[in-house]
């Protein structure tokens, strides 16, 4: 039995066709699997966008509440200062009235 160039070429072509067929089969399997996974990827991305939007809205609400708290704190501090001043004034008036009462006695 002699191995001829024709037989070598034939074996080469057969092996090449087998490799191409194997590559084609794996490519198709990958494409089918990916096509089933793709809607889940899109769903996950849309869920991510939804959660990100909710997070951004909560962050804005948090910032506005912090600003409101800051404004309320400033207003309360100014009222506290006003009350402290009026308390000091009343204390001074009381002291002066006590002195007048003592001087009258």
Automatic annotation (TrEMBL):
Residues 48-100 form a coiled coil. It comes from the Bacteria. Keywords: Coiled coil, Membrane, Transmembrane, Transmembrane helix. The chain crosses the membrane at residues 20-37. This is Uncharacterized protein.
